[in-house]
C-alpha cells in the first residue's frame, strides 16, 4: 500500500530533515515526528518521515521469533 | 538470509496444519511477496490472497474522469503519484489525456506539488490525493502548508481511504490478515486488537525478506492454536500508539465520508475529505465540479479479485485484452496490483 | 496495438516500442538486410560492413559524466561494436533550437571529437538544421556509422544457447539514474555519474580471449532487463539471473528504493550484455576487469532451455520469481 524507505537522518532544520538512503539524499518533512536528531533512522513515505525506527530488521526478527518458539 | 529468517523459512516450508487462507492487504506486500518468490515456498495448504490495499487499484473510474475534467476543461496542472497516470478512466487514462494536451506531472510527494504551486503562481496546481492512513498525512500537510501560506493556486482532489471499515467489508475472506505495516505506523495497533476481539486474526508485517518470512511463520505457528490472535511483527517501526501527531493532523484537516472503492462499491465512512475550513483547497468545491460518474468496463472483475473471491486468471479479459500495457482494470496498472503482479510474476 | 496516436510509452524501448516498429516500420521497410539487431550487416565487396543509426534527444543535454554529444558518439559506436565491427566512419545531423548558446554547441562538438578519437572513428559528414523556438527541445543529434566486421566475429541476438553464461560489463542503471537526477523532478540528490562510454576497446578485448561469443548487446534504453527479454525471445531460450550477483551502485539502489524503480530497467550507455559458453565466461570476465570501462564485470546468470522467452530471478530467500516484463514509461511507484 505504501512504499516505505528506511533512511538515516543527516540533519534537521525548521521541520525539514535531510535523509540519506545508501547515498541517495532528499529533504523530507519532519513535522510529524518530535525530537528528531541527526543519526536517527526513520521510515519515509511520500516525502514525510512517518516513524522513528531501529535500523536493523535482524534484531526484530530475533525478538519476534523468540516469543514464538 | 540471516539465521532467524532461515528458521522462519523452515517453519513455513514444513507447515502441515489445517488449510489456511492468508490475505495480504497491502499492495507493497503483494509486490514484495512476488518479487521474493515467496508464494513458491508455501506448502499446498497455505494460500496467499491479495486484498484491496493498493490505492491505485481501489481508485474508481470516476476519480480519473474528475482529474481529466480538471485538466482538460479547467486547464489545471495535475500532479500525482506516478502509477495513477496509467489507470483507465471511462474514456481515457491521464496518459491519454496528456496526449490530448493535459499537463500531468508525476511527483514524489504532495509537498513537492505545493512547491510547484509556490514557484508557478500562474499555474493552477491540483494534487490527486489517493492513499490510506500512511499517505493521508502527507496530503494533510500539503493542505495545511498551502493554507498557512495563503496559496491560491493549489488544491487537492481527494480520494483518501481508511482501512477499518474495509476490514469489515472483507469479513470472511481470509483466516488471517497480514496487516499493512506502514498504515499501522500511523494508526497504531488498537485497530488490530479490536479485530482480534471480534474474532479476526492477523499480524502486522514489515516488508523485507526477513520481516515477511517472520510474519508468515508467526501466523502459521499461531494458527495451530485455533483461537484469534494478533502479533505485531514489525515493532521496529510500528508502536502501539502509532504516530499521534499524524493522527491529530488528519483529524484537524480531514473528516470521514462515504467513498467508492473500485469493484467494492461505496463503503460507508471509509473515505476522508477536507473539512469545510479547507474548502479553498478542495478542487471539487474550488472549480464547482459537476457530479461525474465513471463507467467501468463491465468485463473487468477487479472487484472480486480485490475481495479474494476470484483470482486474476479467473477473469476473462486477464492477460488477453487486459495487460500492463493496456490495462482494463486498475489492478493491472500498478506493480502493486494483484492482476499486474500475477501477470508479471505468476507465469512460473 | 490499439492506440491511434503515438504515446511516450512507444518510445520507452519496451514492448510497445517493438509493437510500433512491427506495425509501422517493418511493414513498410521490409527487405533482407532490415534487422532487429543493433546494426545491419551488409556484404559489400570482399568484407562485411555493419551500419547503424541512432537519434538522441536527452534532456537535460548535459549531465554528470557526459553530454548529448558524447552520448551520440557512444550510442552508434557501441551499436557497431556489438556486431563485432570496428567503427570506421560516422556522420551526424543536428537539429538545434533557435536561441541555443553557441558556447554550449562548441562544448558538445568538442566532446564528440574527443569521444570519436578515443573510439578510433572519424566524423566525416554532417548536417545542421535550426528549428524555431519551441519546435524542438534545445538540441537533437542523430549519428549514423559504419564499421568493418572482424572476420572472426559472428554474434546475434538469436545465438544464445542453454548452458551459456550471462555477463554484464559493469554495474547497471547508472545512466538512467543520472538523467533522472539531472532532471531534478523528485528533489533527490545522489553522487551518481553516467556510465556513458565508447566500448569498441571492450569488445575488441573479448576477442583476444575467444571467438566463441554468441551475443553482445549494449543495454541502452530499457536497460539490461529489456535486452535480456529481447535475447530470450529472439533465441527462444530462458534467462535465469541470480539477484545477488547483479552489480548495482549503492546510490543507484538508494534512488531506486525511494522511487520504487527496478535498476535492471534503467538505461545504461556504457554497458554490454554478453552471452558466451559457460566455460569461457570466467576468462572473459577476468579480461573485462582489466578494461577501463568494465572493472565491475560479472557473471549474473545463465541461459536455460526452460522458461523460453522469459527472465527468471533466483531470489535471496532461495525461491524463483519472474523479472517483470519491460513495459511503458518508467513511472515512480510511490504508494
Question: What features would you describe in this structure?
Answer:
Chain C: Belongs to the HypE family. Chain C: It comes from Ruminococcus albus SY3. Chain C: This is Carbamoyl dehydratase HypE. Chain C: InterPro entries: HypE, PurM-like_C_dom, PurM-like_C_sf, PurM-like_N, PurM-like_N_sf. The complex is a heterotrimer of chains A (69), B (348) and C (335). Chain A has a single domain, classed as Roll (SH3 type barrels), CATH 2.30.30.140. Chain A is built from one helix and five strands; from the N terminus they run E-E-E-E-E-H. By secondary structure, chain B is α/β, with parallel strands linked by helices. Chain B folds into three domains: 114 residues, 3-Layer(aba) Sandwich (Rossmann fold), CATH 3.40.50.11750; 128 residues, Rossmann fold; 39 residues, no CATH class. Chain B has a six-stranded mixed sheet with strand order 4-3-5-6-11-10, sandwiched between helices. Chain B has a five-stranded parallel sheet with strand order 2-1-7-8-9, with helices on both faces. The mean pLDDT of chain B is 91. Chain C folds into two domains: 111 residues, 60s Ribosomal Protein L30, Chain: A; 159 residues, PurM-like C-terminal domain (Phosphoribosyl-aminoimidazole Synthetase, Chain A, domain 2).
List keywords for this structure.
heterotrimer; A: 69 residues; mainly beta; SH3 type barrels; five-stranded antiparallel beta sheet; 1 helix; 5 strands; 14% helix; 46% strand; C: 335 residues; alpha+beta; 60s Ribosomal Protein L30, Chain: A; Phosphoribosyl-aminoimidazole Synthetase, Chain A, domain 2; 2 domains; seven-stranded mixed beta sheet; five-stranded mixed beta sheet; 15 strands; 29% helix; 27% strand; globular
Q: What name does the CATH topology of chain A carry?
A: SH3 type barrels
Strand coverage percent of chain B: 15-25%
> Percent of residues of chain A in helical segments?
10-25%
Gap between N and C termini of chain A: 30 Å
Brief account:
The complex is a heterotrimer of chains A (69), B (348) and C (335). Chain B is α/β, with parallel strands linked by helices and 348 residues long.
Amino acid at each position: 500500500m505504501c512504499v516505505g524507505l528506511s533512511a538515516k537522518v543527516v540533519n534537521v532544520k525548521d521541520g525539514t530533515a535531510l535523509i540519506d538512503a545508501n547515498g541517495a539524499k532528499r529533504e523530507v518533512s519532519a513535522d510529524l515526528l518530535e525530537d528528531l536528531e541527526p543519526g536517527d533512522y526513520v521510515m519515509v513515505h511520500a516525502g514525510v518521515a512517518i516513524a522513528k525506527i531501529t535500523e536493523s530488521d535482524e534484531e526484530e526478527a530475533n525478538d519476534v521469533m523468540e516469543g514464538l518458539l | 538470509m540471516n539465521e532467524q529468517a532461515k528458521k522462519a523459512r523452515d517453519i513455513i516450508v514444513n507447515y502441515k496444519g489445517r488449510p489456511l487462507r492468508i490475505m495480504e492487504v497491502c499492495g507493497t506486500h503483494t509486490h514484495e511477496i512476488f518479487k521474493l518468490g515467496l508464494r513458491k515456498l508455501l506448502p499446498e495448504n497455505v494460500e496467499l490472497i491479495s486484498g484491496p490495499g493498493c490505492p491505485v487499484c481501489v481508485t474508481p473510474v470516476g476519480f480519473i474522469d474528475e482529474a481529466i475534467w480538471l485538466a482538460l476543461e479547467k486547464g489545471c496542472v495535475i500532479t500525482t503519484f506516478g502509477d495513477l497516470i496509467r489507470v483507465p478512466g471511462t474514456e481515457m487514462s491521464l496518459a491519454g489525456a496528456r496526449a490530448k494536451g493535459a499537463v500531468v506531472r508525476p511527483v514524489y510527494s504532495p509537498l513537492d506539488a505545493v512547491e510547484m504551486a509556490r514557484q508557478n503562481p500562474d499555474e493552477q496546481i491540483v494534487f490527486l490525493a489517493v492513499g490510506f492512513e500512511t499517505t493521508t498525512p502527507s496530503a494533510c500537510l500539503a493542505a495545511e502548508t498551502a493554507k498557512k501560506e495563503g496559496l491560491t493556486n493549489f488544491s487537492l482532489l481527494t480520494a483518501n481511504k481508511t482501512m477499518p471499515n474495509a476490514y469489515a467489508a472483507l469479513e470472511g475472506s481470509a483466516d488471517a490478515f497480514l496487516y499493512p505495516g506502514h498504515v499501522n505506523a500511523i494508526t497504531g495497533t488498537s485497530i488490530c486488537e479490536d479485530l482480534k476481539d471480534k474474532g479476526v486474526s492477523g499480524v502486522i508485517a514489515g516488508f523485507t525478506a526477513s520481516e515477511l518470512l517472520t510474519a508468515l511463520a508467526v501466523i502459521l505457528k499461531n494458527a495451530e492454536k485455533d483461537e484469534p490472535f494478533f502479533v505485531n511483527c514489525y515493532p521496529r517501526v510500528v508502536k502501539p500508539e502509532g504516530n499521534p501527531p499524524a493522527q491529530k493532523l488528519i483529524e484537524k484537516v480531514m473528516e470521514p465520508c462515504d467513498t467508492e472503492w473500485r469493484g467494492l462499491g461505496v463503503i460507508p465512512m471509509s473515505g476522508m475529505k477536507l473539512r469545510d475550513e479547507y474548502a479553498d483547497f478542495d478542487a471539487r468545491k474550488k472549480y464547482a465540479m459537476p457530479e461525474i460518474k465513471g463507467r467501468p468496463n463491465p468485463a473487468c472483475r477487479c472487484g472480486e479479485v480485490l475481495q479474494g473471491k476470484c483470482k486474476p486468471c479467473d477473469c476473462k479479459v486477464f492477460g488477453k485484452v487486459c495487460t500492463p500495457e493496456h490495462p482494463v482494470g486498475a489492478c493491472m496498472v500498478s506493480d502493486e496490483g494483484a492482476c499486474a503482479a500475477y501477470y508479471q510474476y505468476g507465469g512460473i | 496495438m490499439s492506440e491511434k496516436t503515438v504515446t511516450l510509452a512507444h518510445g520507452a524501448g519496451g514492448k510497445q516500442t517493438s509493437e510500433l516498429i512491427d506495425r509501422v516500420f517493418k511493414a513498410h521497410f521490409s527487405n533482407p538486410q532490415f534487422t532487429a539487431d543493433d546494426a545491419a550487416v551488409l556484404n559489400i565487396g570482399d568484407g562485411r560492413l555493419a551500419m547503424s543509426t541512432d537519434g538522441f534527444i536527452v534532456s537535460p543535454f548535459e549531465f554528470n559524466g557526459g553530454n548529448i554529444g558524447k552520448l551520440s558518439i557512444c550510442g552508434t559506436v557501441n551499436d557497431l561494436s556489438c556486431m563485432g565491427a570496428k567503427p570506421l566512419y560516422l556522420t551526424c545531423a543536428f537539429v538545434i533550437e533557435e536561441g541555443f548558446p553557441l558556447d554550449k554547441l562548441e562544448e558538445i562538438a568538442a566532446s564528440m571529437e574527443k569521444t570519436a578519437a578515443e573510439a578510433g572513428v572519424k566524423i566525416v559528414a554532417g548536417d545542421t538544421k535550426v528549428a524555431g523556438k519551441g519546435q524542438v527541445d534545445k538540441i537533437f543529434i542523430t549519428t549514423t556509422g559504419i564499421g568493418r566486421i572482424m572476420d572472426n566475429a559472428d554474434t546475434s541476438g538469436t545465438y544464445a544457447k542453454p548452458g551459456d553464461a550471462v555477463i554484464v560489463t559493469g554495474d547497471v542503471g547508472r545512466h538512467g539514474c543520472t538523467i533522472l537526477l539531472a532532471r531534478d523532478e523528485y528533489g533527490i540528490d545522489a553522487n551518481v555519474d553516467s556510465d556513458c562510454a565508447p566500448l569498441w576497446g571492450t569488445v575488441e578485448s573479448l576477442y583476444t580471449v575467444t571467438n566463441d561469443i554468441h551475443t553482445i548487446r549494449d543495454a541502452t534504453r530499457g536497460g539490461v532487463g529489456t535486452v535480456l527479454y529481447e535475447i530470450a525471445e529472439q533465441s527462444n531460450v530462458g534467462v535465469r539471473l541470480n539477484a545477488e550477483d547483479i552489480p548495482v551502485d549503492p546510490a543507484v539502489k538508494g534512488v531506486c528504493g525511494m522511487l520504487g524503480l527496478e535498476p535492471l530497467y534503467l538505461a545504461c550507455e556504457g554497458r554490454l550484455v554478453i552471452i558466451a559458453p559457460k566455460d569461457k565466461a570466467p576468462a572473459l570476465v577476468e579480461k573485462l576487469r582489466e578494461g577501463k570501462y568494465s572493472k565491475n564485470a560479472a557473471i549474473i546468470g545463465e541461459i536455460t532451455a526452460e522458461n523460453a522467452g522469459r527472465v527468471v530471478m533466483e531470489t535471496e530467500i532461495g525461491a524463483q520469481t519472474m523479472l517483470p516484463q519491460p513495459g511503458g514509461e518508467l513511472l515512480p511507484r510511490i504508494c
